[in-house]
Amino acid sequence: MSTHPRLSYFLLTLTSLFWSGNFVVARATHAAIAPMTLSFARWTIALLILLPWVGKRAWLQRQLLRTHYKRIVLLGILGVAGFNSFVYAGLQYTTAMNAVLLNSFIPILIVLIGWAFQKQALSRASMIGILTSFGGVMLIVSRADWQTLTHLSINQGDALVFCAVVCWAIYTVLLRGLPQTMDRLAMLVAVVAVGWLVLALPFTYEVWGLQHHTDLNLPNLLTFLYVGIFPSVLAYLFYNRGVADVGPAKAGAFIHLMPAFGSILAMLFLGEKLQSYHAGGIALIFCGIYLNTRQ
Fold first, then answer.
1. Long-range contacts at 50-57 (CB < 8 A, ≥ 24 apart)
2. Whole-model pTM?
3. At what angle do helices 3-28 and 83-90 cross, to 10 degrees?
4. What is the pLDDT of residue 108?
5. Which 3-state string (H, E, C) describes 127-138?
6. Localized where (predicted)?
7. For residue 153, what pLDDT is reported?
8. Residues 6+ positions from 271 with CB-CB distance below 8 Å
9. I need a surface site. Which of 167, 211, 222, 239 has the fewest CB within 10 A?
10. What are the pLDDT digits (tens) for 13-55?
11. pLDDT digit string (tens) for 115-165?
């Protein structure tokens, strides 16, 4: 293996760690910071960091960005506004452990979307793997009580997090369609700018319409800084580079690390406990991933 993919794999590992921390921090502060406020503050900080650094590079590539504006807009809506808003809203109602375990379904969705829309081959083993992983997701969201499915009483937070999972899977597949000549930093700042603009409306409604105000105390400010730097600027930069270097399927596979990182962080900092349905669900998801990725 060359140094280049090794570096990408290391950066993708850090990405999973930073994102896992994002789930735990969002859950820890869910009573103090409203979800749209956290999402808007996160991307405001990220944009303030990115613009002075790479704004000129984005301007120099404005023609290329304009050529692919439809994909850039979709990436901003799905990967910045959609994913984060659904996650933060979901963490108002579900645990960080549930949310991070549900995210382990993303690699399977990436394969399924590639098959449905990009005509990628799907073997019988892959199909069995997808169904097995989906069974694991259902075990987690039902908390091993299948009557919750028949009565359509799935936890609201789990449903919102699953919407985030779908957003991120589509985002990953769309990333691969961008040309190699596009500067990844220029693309990132354009995508973040689109997402930030989309988030402005729900943030405004949350603050002035719903009267959900957030105190600017030290813990909340530190939360804003963490989510604005580590799971945003650094993680998105690392992830986008990983997708460009090793492809969406291999890059998406590093999301498998999030259940381990997220569960450990949730137990250490939130006092959450690993339940039997968590273990059973993640076992089914990993079995599905194995079936889907074996040669």
1. 50/185, 50/188, 50/189, 50/192, 50/233, 51/189, 53/185, 54/183, 54/185, 54/186, 54/188, 54/189, 55/189, 57/183, 57/185, 57/186, 57/189
2. 0.85
3. 40
4. 80
5. HHHHHHHHHHHH
6. Cell membrane
7. 63
8. none
9. 211
10. 899 899 999 999 999 999 999 999 999 999 999 999 999 989 9
11. 877 777 777 887 888 788 888 888 887 878 877 666 656 789 999 999 999
Task: Return the pLDDT at 1.
Answer: 41
Residues 193-237: pLDDT tens digits? 999 999 999 999 999 999 999 999 999 999 999 999 999 999 988
Handedness of CA 160, 162, 166, 169 (dihedral sign): positive
Q: What distance lies between CA 143 and its chain's CA centroid?
A: 22
The Cα 76–Cα 71 span in angstroms is 9
